[in-house]
Amino acid sequence: MHPADNPLVTHPHKKGPFGGIWTKIRKASEPLIESAKALLPILLVIGFFQLLVLRQPIPNMGQMLWGALLVLLGLALFVRGLQMALFPIGEEMAHNFVRKGNLWWLLIFAFTLGFGTTVAEPALIAISQEAARIAAAGQVIGNSVEAQNSYATGLRLTVALAVGIALVVGVFRILKGWPVQYLIIGGYFGVVVMTFFAPPEIIGIAYDSGGVTTSTVTVPLVAALGIGLAHSIHGRDPLIDGFGLIAFASLTPMIFVMAYGMLY
Amino acid sequence: MDGLIHFGYTMLTMLRDVLPIMAILFGFQILVLRRPIKNQARVAMGLVFVLLGLTLFLEGLEMALFPIGRLMATQLTAPEFIYGSQVGELLSVRWSDYMWVYVFAAAIGFATTVAEPALLAVAMKANQVSGGTITVRGLRYAVAIGVAVGVALGVFRIVTGTPLHWYIICGYIVVMIQTTFAPKLIIPLAYDSGGVTTSTVTVPLVAALGLGLAETIPGRSPILDGFGLIAFASLFPIMAVMAYAQLVEWKARRLKLRTEQE
Q: Under an 8 A CB cutoff, do A38 and B114 touch?
């Protein structure tokens, strides 16, 4: 990324009253100020509802401020790390795969990345255990711990498989230059059709599973991979062809989870 | 001391999440592509930053935001807050009694989305790729407005107990109609922004809200009606981003028309 595109760093042209030191301090504090702006709405919402609607004092003020400081530092560091590592890795690998010119390895990579990053995703583990509890309550499966565990594991593997396939399809689309909307709208039809056949208990989980698959580390990598591919292939536009991978990864799990609910 | 142990634990959990990803990346880089990674020291440093940054971020949220956010969600949805302390057993509810809950849902959906790191990453990339036409702030606010509307509507659905899939199907139809009219350049990005909104910050708070409502409203079951809010939060940003692009285009066209007239 070009430094000028970095929203969290400003590039002062003239030196302040204290010369170099002042500029350095300003430069160092800029990411923190940007993070603070990102955090401010949360603090306002919490303050407003706690003080004016619920009319209660804010508990543990000290701990809250300390936590807010950690969030600020964390967000600033994360953004720096994105630019230094995750974005360059994703784009460089895209370039290298295109230069190697082997379609199969690229598709295998896309699948592995999708499957591997999803299968261990904490949010997915939590939601699949919840789903197993629901299935047990609805007498779809036995009430034993083993039955619930195997249901949860099966569901997790299903979602991971769905994301793996999503990235394969998404990467293939970038290579071919197909418009994203036809595939996505086709996917919507899949979701709607499956909704009428899937057991009602699974629908809520299936719809939610689309949103939880893409983690904070995966998203920047996948975005950079797509844009890198679109950059390296002649005739592809990074904006039109580069984006869309994440959309596939949040759509296919819905269809797959409903299919899982029907087959189980 | 306790804090340090907890910090170390969070760090290890993060490491466990990140290691498989790194293994895949470097495995392919070394075994298949057979190319050394450029700027190894810088990339390694960046990975440490990502790991440390996310750990601090989560740790801070766990200290400052999640406890009070969950508490507020429970308090705002409690029948004692909505109907006063003399309330007997609830038999049915009117949707209009839950006004503060809708406002809270929208406000917290908006606020947590603005702070979502994954969305920031996509917004930075979109800004770079579009040559600055799509601003980081504009995209983030558009997505956050989408989440706000989505979560508020999702909460309304839990209160009224109407079936989830009708809302989602209607949403799909709106998305399809917008797709035909929205500027072509924005469509892939709009679809993507549905998936990035719900991760680290939004999910825990929104889930607490859904669960709180489903537990207190008669006739709702937490396991059946508690779900679905995340689906709303991933669908509505798609519409919001396309609407934002349509608005920008419309404004530009109007400006052009006006300058031509003069």
A: yes
Asked if pLDDT for residue A7 goes beyond 70, the answer is no
Q: Indicate if B87 and B137 belong to the same structural domain.
A: yes
Task: Please judge whether B63 and A64 are an interchain contact, meaning their C-beta atoms are less than 8 angstroms apart.
Answer: yes
Owner of token pair 């200290």: B63
Query: Predicted ipTM?
Result: 0.87
Q: By three-state DSSP, how is residue B44 classified?
A: helix
Measured N-to-C along each axis, helices B229-261 and B187-196 cross at an angle, to the nearest 10 degrees, of 150
In this complex, the residue of B72, B111, B226 whose CB is nearest that of residue A41 is: B111
Which domain covers residue B15, as residue numbers? 1-64
Cβ-based contacts under 8 A for chains A and B:
344
From the CA of A19, how many Å to the nearest CA of chain B? 28
Of the three residues B35, B64, B93, the one that is the final residue of a domain is B64
What per-residue confidence (pLDDT) applies to A106? 92
- Within 8 A by CB and 6+ apart from A173, the residues are A180, A183, A241, A244, A248
Shared-domain flag, residues B54 and B135 = no
Which residues in chain B are contacts of A88 at CB distance < 8 A? 38-39, 43, 46
CB-CB neighbors (< 8 A) of A68 in chain B: 60, 64
The residues of chain B scoring below 50 in pLDDT are: none
Q: What is the mean pLDDT of residues A39-59?
A: 85
> Which chain A residues contact residue B18 at CB under 8 A?
217
The pLDDT value given to residue A5: 55
Residues B20 and B101 occupy one common structural domain:
no
Q: CA angle, A195 as apex, A189 and A200 as ends, to 5°?
A: 170
Indicate left, alpha or beta for B161 from its phi (over 0: left) and psi (-120 to 50: alpha).
left
Own/partner contacts of B247-251, CB < 8 Å, gap of 24 or more, are B248/B138, B249/B183
